[in-house]
Amino acid sequence: MTTRLRTRVAIVGAGPAGLLLSHLLHRDGIESIVIDNRSRDEIESTIRAGILEQGTVDLLVASGASERVLVDGHRHEGIDLHFDDAAHRIDLTELTGRAVWLYPQHEVLRDLLARRSADGGEVRFGWSATAVRDADSATPVVVGTDADGAPFEITADVLVGADGSRSVVRKAINGTDAPGYFREYPFAWLGILCEAPPSAPELIYSASDEGFALISQRSETVQRMYLQCDPELDHTTMSDAEIWDGLQRRVGGTRLIEGRIFQRDVLRFRSFVARGLSRGNVFLLGDAAHTVPPTGAKGMNLAVADVVLLHAALREQAAGGGRGLLDGYAAAASERIWRAQHFSWWMTSMLHATPEESAFDRQRRFGELRSVAGSRAGSTFLAEAYTGWPLTFTL
Ligand code: PHB
Question: Does the keyword Oxidoreductase apply (predicted)?
Answer without folding.
Answer: yes
